[in-house]
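SEQUENCE-TO-STRUCTURE ENTRY
===========================
Question of interest: how does this chain fold, as expressed in backbone structure tokens?
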Amino acid sequence: MKFDTLNLDARLQNNISSLDYRRMTDIQYKAFKPIMQKDDVLAVAQTGTGKTAAFGIPTIQRLLEKPQKHQSYIVRCVVMEPTHELAHQVGDVLKKLANGTDINTCAIYGGVNQDEQIENLKRGTDIIVATPGRLFDLSAQGYLDVSSCEILILDEADQMLALGFFKDIKQLCARLPKHRQTLFFSATINPEIKKLAYSLVVKPVNIRISPKNAVAKNVTHAVLKVKMDEKRFYLERIRHENPEASIMVFVRTRVRAERVAAAMKRVGIDAVNIHGDKSQKERNAALETFRKHEVTMLIATDVSARGIDIPHVNYVVNYDVPDVVENYVHRVGRTGRGMDKGYALTFCAPEEEKLLADVEKYLGGKIDEMKMSREDREATIDFSEEASDDWKSLIDKEISKEEKRKGKRKC
């Protein structure tokens, strides 16, 4: 179904066209009617299927159909996001969809100065896109009133309702009107999280797209068995064999993100990285350079890059096998978005075999293993500018061993 067949406000329809949204995806089509009918919704769909527009378009249309005079610090819709990057990204999409209408939007998240956010709230904001910390902070300061909120949207709902956020969500719900609309959107949701979600809503409409496969069909998956300390050589080879490709690399920890970036730098490969120890300014700058294709390798931890929508990512490299199986879905969902083809390659060291088995069990099948001959593996390491097993290094090692033996004989 095409967007231009919907009975939407003309200004919203123009904005949809300017964003080049033409035909509705499954999740957009199935979510539109229940949201417009003010039903609670629990929606699960693959990454890259347009979930932001799925809740954003009908929400803006709903608010436009019931215009209200803007009042300082009072909001009509709260969209909750787990990370600063997602709050910024989703806020930007909603702002473009509402451009030129009577609906004001504002993104509220930490890591940046709050003054501009307060000014936006003072002018009157219909929709805020917020992370829990900054939302409660501004509320405590008296700059935010959610007591008249009509719609609550939990994006990346599985993460929002994980232990770290569930208390925050419960606290927020206690401040919201009892009779409101609540929408949950996520790429993955397990039975425990589903139970928590049902505790916050009334008879939600359940929408599940491709329930047996949370990963988009246009992503090709492969796993390469390698030693942990040799992964950097294989990443270097991928870069050199695909010099123009946009590559997103996922690691498990902040320290690993820094080390992999440093390893790439040593062999002359430009890469930017994002993780929780970076300032928001640094993280935004890294994402922007990657988005603009100024640097074509981004190294990230799961939390920092979850849900980030960067067009035309050619490769996702799981440098580390994720220790939370759902994160595999969110990682590989950064490629193969929309109609694009994507490739997801996982480096698996012997000590990560159990984690890989868990991921495959979750996916419901084996990931194809990329076979490499011994000669090809040796060539990968020899090819690297950082390889230590070149002839000079081998000779130096032998000289060093001989000198040590001579030293022992003298003693």
